[in-house]
Amino acid sequence: SKNKKDTRVTSTCCYCGVGCGVLINKERNGSITVEGNKDYPVNKGMLCSKGMNLHYTVNDKSDRLLYPQMRYNKNMPLQRVSWDDALNRTAAVFKTFINKYGPDSVAFYASGQCLTEEYYVINKLIKGFIGSNNIDTNSRLCMSSAVVGYKMALGEDCVPVCYDDIELADLFYVTGANPAWCHPILWRRVEAHKAANPDVKIIVVDPRVTDTCALADLHLQINPGTDVTLNHAIGRVLIENGDIDLDFITNHAEGFEQYSAIVFKRTIAEAAEICGVTESDIRLAALYISEAKGFITMWTMGLNQSAIGVNKNLSLINLNLITGHIGKPGSGPLSLTGQPNAMGGREVGGLSNLMPAHRDLNNPVHREEVQKFWGGNAINPKPGLTATEMFEALHDGRLKAIWIICTNPLTSLPNARLAEEVLKKANYVVVQDISNKPETLQYADVILPAAAWAEKEGTMTNSERRISYLHKAVDAPGEALPDAEIICRFARKMGFNGFDYQKPADIYAEHVRLTAKTNIDISGLNYDIIKEHGSVQWPYKKKRYVKDSSRLFINRQFYTPTQKACIHAVPDELTSENTDSNYPFVLTTGRIRDQWHTMSKTAKVNKLNQHYKQAFVEIHPNDANGLGLTDGDIAVIKSRRGEVRVKVHISTEIKQGVIFLPMHWGKILGSDLNRANNLTNDLIDPVSKEPDFKFCAVSITKY
Ligand code: SF4
């Protein structure tokens, strides 16, 4: 009815990278309700617990930042100021630092939850006009190892499959992921597919027995960090048994000989010993792969968040390559993006080592193209600071000002106590957020209130390259503004041209023009086309709607210079922190089903707090017995960096010698003893610069 049309708009869930379609109903009293969009191809009407409760986060404005605040020096309290005052002063401070210390003395640290248009203008501002590449986002903590893995193996940062491949696959190899909790709607599709086709096989690789294992035909409960050894061992069995695709390897891939040499360095028995699984289970995994017609590998943080994250990714993609399970229906690597728009951010180049439309920062032709297009300053060839490097640079004084947008690094960065000390001493801190809760706010010199999901319009890209348009449904409270608007106002205060957009559609139009003739060409796209079709997958070159641009590499030509995929012979050595007699346990951190990130939204929803009301540590009964710990005790967990005190949750679902802490909790009532990242360490993957959240050495004792 006309009434429904006026009061209902489409959007996309702003939590995980599954990217479910949502209908937002605008109620008469100004509040909203949400429901799953039945016409949306991703979720067909389904929503998980987080998505179903999105309206509470919008309707409850009690924690919202309502107006800009500022303090003139660190000893003064924050006071309410106008937008002009906040942005004028910040522009003056930025100019002073840039003049005195150079453009690399300032940085933006943003989020995988930003809309594509927001990323675009931040990236343009710092790279095109300020002259530094110091923009990074919390996607660095999330998908950067997968990005490097894809680029090295396939020549481009791209997920080759689409979700419709799920229903065409007969084997899923799920590793370092718990999609039953963290990507629930995608997992519902796998469950439904297996229910309808009992022959479909699922292998789960995880040191924990997660809910995802409920569906597994084979659970390989490996020792943390041994993924490469396991994948190599499976590769070896496949080669030994002749279960590889020689035609694909010969014609469409390179590097097989070196790969073969490296996987044959270890016997299967040796690998089984290292991984803590049986030899027969490794052989069974290889058997399942050999029998599969459609073989999908799925992974997320267990592989990415590692000091050898890139090697783990490559060792996994290798299994698709040696078996030729890529570029055909129901087969290929499917990295499960953590955040709703990590991929959209990368499309505009929103990381410190990237350029718009996946251009290369170290390519002078690409730099010149972008500089000419933007009409600003020459692009600096030097990669900018990554997430953890920004805090190191604040620490040693190279970085003078940091602008934090839509993320809470004091809960989410590794070694969080050090990060907090660093932020406390930073010269100038701008925090742009929707919530008055993040710990960063107490160290801010300027606080800028941002509009939240459903209060602004823009686009996002999900894990299967699907671009969707998010409608604005309600006004932002108080003086809060959309992030893109804040950045454009600031850019104008800095005196830069090229930030006079009338509306987000203008930003989007500029972004798509810049993608022309690249691998991710979406130059044919605009808001009207996306709105008309609900969503569109890239690439999208023509202005004509094409339904199936969904699966890449059907012609088996890859984006590498030789058009062949690269099988990389990666070493399997683990470079994570060593355990010793003082810190004998391995800590792994992760998510729980009903919370998202640092909880600034999900903790507002009573229903979502019921699942786990507080932080806890999961430990195996044999370990607990040895330590005199019983269920419900308070345990003290220490690492070389800090400590945590949380309730003990004894469970046979975790491997002996390993403990698990949820990553969501930060400071509560001034105490940081729930914060898992007090314990995690500064080690990063040398290439992807992604932190080693899944492995650090700890001790655990009774409080
Ligand atoms: Fe939102 Fe992800 Fe849940 Fe879908 S699966 S409703 S995108 S949190």
Automatic annotation (TrEMBL):
Alphabetically sorted, this entry's keywords are:
4Fe-4S, FAD, Flavoprotein, Iron, Iron-sulfur, Metal-binding, Molybdenum, Nitrate assimilation, Oxidoreductase
- Give the required cofactors: [4Fe-4S] cluster; FAD; Mo-bis(molybdopterin guanine dinucleotide)
Keyword tRNA-binding applies: no
Keyword Electron transport on this protein? no
Residue span, 4Fe-4S Mo/W bis-MGD-type domain: 6-62
Stated family: Belongs to the prokaryotic molybdopterin-containing oxidoreductase family. NasA/NapA/NarB subfamily.
Please report the name of this protein according to its UniProt entry. Answer: 4Fe-4S Mo/W bis-MGD-type domain-containing protein
Which source organism? Answer: Mucilaginibacter defluvii
Portion of the full-length sequence here: 3 to 705 of 1170
